[in-house]
Amino acid sequence: MSELKEISIAEFFEKNKHILGYTNPARALITVVKEAVDNSLDACEEAGILPDIFVRISKVGENFRVVVEDNGPGIRKDLVARAFGKLLYGSRFHEIRQSRGQQGIGISAAVLYAQLTTGKPAVIVTKPIGAEKAYRVHIYIDTKRNEPIVESEGEEDWYLPHGTRVEFEILGSYVKDRKQSVFEYLKETSVVNPHAKITFVDPDGSIYEFKRSSNEMPKQAKAIKPHPHGIELGKLMNMLKFTNATTLRKFLKEEFVRVGDKIAEEILSKAQFSGEEDPKKLGREDVVKLIEAFKSVDLLPPPIDCLSPIGEELLMRSLISEYSPEFVYAVTRKPKVYSGHPFLVETAIAYGGEIKTDKVILLRFANKIPLLYQQGGCALTKVVEGINWKNYGLEQTKDELPYGNAVILIHLASTNIPYTSESKEAISPIPEIMDEIRLALQDVGRKLKEYLDRKGRQEAKKKKEEVIAKILPLIAKKVCEVLEKDPVEVDRIIARIMGYLHVERHISERDGMKEVKLIVSNFTKAKREIKVLETCSGEVEAENAKISGGKYPTISWEVSLNPNEEVELKYLLRGEVLNKNPIVEGLDRALLSGQF
Amino acid sequence: MSELKEISIAEFFEKNKHILGYTNPARALITVVKEAVDNSLDACEEAGILPDIFVRISKVGENFRVVVEDNGPGIRKDLVARAFGKLLYGSRFHEIRQSRGQQGIGISAAVLYAQLTTGKPAVIVTKPIGAEKAYRVHIYIDTKRNEPIVESEGEEDWYLPHGTRVEFEILGSYVKDRKQSVFEYLKETSVVNPHAKITFVDPDGSIYEFKRSSNEMPKQAKAIKPHPHGIELGKLMNMLKFTNATTLRKFLKEEFVRVGDKIAEEILSKAQFSGEEDPKKLGREDVVKLIEAFKSVDLLPPPIDCLSPIGEELLMRSLISEYSPEFVYAVTRKPKVYSGHPFLVETAIAYGGEIKTDKVILLRFANKIPLLYQQGGCALTKVVEGINWKNYGLEQTKDELPYGNAVILIHLASTNIPYTSESKEAISPIPEIMDEIRLALQDVGRKLKEYLDRKGRQEAKKKKEEVIAKILPLIAKKVCEVLEKDPVEVDRIIARIMGYLHVERHISERDGMKEVKLIVSNFTKAKREIKVLETCSGEVEAENAKISGGKYPTISWEVSLNPNEEVELKYLLRGEVLNKNPIVEGLDRALLSGQF
What we know:
Two copies of one chain form a homodimer. The first copy, chain A, has helices at residues 9-15, 25-46, 77-85, 106-117, 182-192, 233-242, 248-255, 261-270, 284-296, 312-323, 379-386, 431-483, 491-498; strands at 5-6, 52-60, 63-70, 89-90, 122-127, 134-142, 147-156, 163-170, 197-201, 207-210, 327-332, 336-338, 341-351, 361-366, 369-371, 406-414, 501-510, 513-522, 528-542, 546-547, 554-561, 566-577, 583-585, 592-593. In chain A, α2 runs antiparallel to α4. Chain A is 31% helix and 27% strand. In chain A, the strands form three sheets. In chain A, strands 7-6-5-8-3-2-9-10 form an eight-stranded mixed sheet. In chain A, strands 17, 18, 19, 20, 21, 22, 23 and 24 form an eight-stranded mixed sheet that branches. In chain A, strands 11, 12, 13, 14, 15 and 16 form a six-stranded mixed sheet that branches. The longest helix of chain A is centred in the C-terminal third of the chain and has 53 residues, at 431-483. The first copy, chain A, has four domains: 9-210, Histidine kinase-like ATPase, C-terminal domain (Heat Shock Protein 90), CATH 3.30.565.10; 233-296, Helicase, Ruva Protein, domain 3, CATH 1.10.8; 304-453, 2-Layer Sandwich (Ribosomal Protein S5, domain 2); 491-593, Immunoglobulin-like (Sandwich). The radius of gyration of chain A is 35 Å and the shape is elongated. Chain A has 13 helices and 24 strands. At the A-B interface, β1, α1, α3, β4 and α4 of A face β1, α1, α3, β4 and α4 of B. β1 of chain A pairs antiparallel with β4 of chain B, so a sheet runs across the interface.
């Protein structure tokens, strides 16, 4: 057997950089930007600062230089080297709350990729709030030891009051006008982060600005303690081993959310403990009993404040502004738990309008990060494909994305997003999560169906009317001929069949005066309060009607009609009626008939 | 900013176990078996032992116990604990040669998963070759430190002369009769590892045996040095830093494959070095020049012996035995390099016969490991979907798997398989690899097309014949009636039109003797060497023919006919002809006509 050796995590990823998303130059460039921008957004939000982020990509010979600058709180000098120059090192891994970075790998991986492909160190400039000067450092990673190598460092003046600037030189390739591009990533990022302002300068020097559309900070996600539901046995054993609590009862109350005296007692009695046991002394069998007890007690879901959803309104707003659809709907579900990690699902659907696509467009987000790659390998996609969209009015070939002019958006927010790999582009098929997504999609699906049915009914009605309007007159004509009667007025009949409010005007002359008669018939199914107006030239006389004076008097009637009620409005006129048809106010034109 | 902490790789995977393939109980069970079996196969092959592997899955209360036992070389006592109880620790990571395990994570991850879900230690029993007794050890992992904890250990007798046995108790779920199952994994494994014998006992106690179909060890993959093509700058800088070579020339010749004196000189002159430089003293710019020089020199591909392909014959054999298709073809490509890692691609296609499927069945293998999950997220799948299969005779909706009764097999062999994650279920889209796969698939695709065309032509011919055979007699009959002639023999005419070899028999009586006349006409396009036979009862006389004696003599003629040549075979007979039609040997029945 050949020699066994220890492998440093940095060596591992140096050899397997594709796992981190560095599969080809184009994607590598996007990944580097992504890691840096995600970091900046996290930093700003933690410090309660509205993010103002500057991204510049420029060509340097064969390679690309990536600069990302933020107005965040900056980083303490003594922490910079390891924060950027050591993999598996970070602040967010051990915390239970929603954040973009959670692995402690991303940004150091960018440093690793830069030195691997161009041999250039990463340059970090950072100025903590209140600091006089900025700290500039050039960093390599010693892959054999997974430790930072500081090539050079120094202090300098900086125009920003506080913030951080990172600079990488990498082997990359810049692509435009593609779903998978830096531009698209930044665009989608700004869509779900309206509180952020992002400025992007591309290699040609063109400047794009993604404006701040909301000055309100998203509610800061708070760190919480683990939730008893779904926690693994091994995890619990570790917690018991390292707790400071002196008794099991204290342990339960202090180390978990949603566990107060009452719940603690319930758990203890179900697991047959007194509560006075020393947590450190519990054996495997005891822990098994505890887990069982956890499962059997009803608990509130984890507090939502460890999560920071996008919100239904914002989801709809951004879909409307991006795609101007004719229909949009969004749902934010309640938080749930998988393996002790709180998560919640948001979905939205936009339909029709200016959306023109063959298969629906699927937008995937995790903790407000757009996922551009590995759509096929993502559980979010799988759920969409697994739903029978025919039930919701969309065409679909079995187990594929549905067809139709629609955009489906899914956002998974969690204290620990179960990415399929460190490249953070696809979600693992965790059953609890997939169920939630399915339910959320069915919610929006049902609303879509309602809309499409309503639309369908209206179109059907329109067709019906057209037919009737064509045929009826002919029938009438024939009938009249046969019966040797004068032709009848069919509009009125159509109006009755179609359920319209119908208005007719009959004018008869009597000794130099015109007598105008308006017959208003309410064939609709509801009571109608309307106003009928006629404008004339010359003198008018009318009963129970308002008449405005002047050269061109307007006569107006307030009319209230129950279904199938009819009213006759009369006036005498020496002159002309000016409006072609009687004017009706207070009613949808679609419900109005007569020769309008 | 919250506190920055170091994260141990074990902690990381404890929290992100889905990255390792532990997304749900069913898959977890498969993954554990997979890791153990892959290890066993690697160990046996390295020691040149024909693998004999025993797998048992049994229910233990809510959980499952997995036992995997091999007849491998065993593991040295002092190495066992870390080999199983420490992540990122192994023998194969630093070697450049094809092996199943390459990350030093898999088996320890199984240990981690077991303790996380059931709190039970892994039990390893191992007996190195020549050892008296076996060593048994119970192992946990200290996740905070990523170090093994030995709970108990001891020596014991063991019935195996040498080998290793691992035992895990895990939270799992056993599924049957599914593409994604332990059974399927073992089946597909044995398909591409015919030298291995695998015995599987499922939870019901049913025993399945995957027999050893070849006693020949696959050629052992040899460890090689890196190949200059595609090596990254950072990697090269590291090599220079840690080399023992005293001069750059020595460095090039000693640390790379395919670099001899001539190539070394070529590289040095292109990069403008004397060759006497101290490798350790080279700066970044020098290394850039070296890399450029590397790219510009022509090099042999890396030696194939670091790879161990399955082989075209075996691929076809196993597809035939598994699917009994009507057509099968396989291709093994030459090795290529990506980022300095040698790799080669094999593809095979099976069509028709007993294959009944809607979309084609895709079988993915990496270093002889079947990939069961994440088909959608795998570059292998992407390439298949990206090919226009209509060119090769299969139906296809754009960018999806083609339709048709076919099985497509892809095997990627490499010294470093670019898995998308540590779960080793999907391949990253590395451009060089995708190109090779595309070419390989097009090879087999073309062969499929050829076959389908040939088949098409034959069917067309068959149709044509049917038509002619129906119509011609009718025409003939009519013609004869009109001309008041006797009906003509049309078979012969059909034979001429269709290009058959036609045989007719005419019998005439003469003073008590039958005179039999066989007219053999070769209407085919080729010269034909055939044998014509007749079996009779009674006496026979024939010229230039063989006559077997006995009660039922057989007369046989060796006949050689050029296209459009005709021959008459005569014999006299006092008795009966026994065979309904003359027997013709040495010709495809499909080319034969007459009343056969």
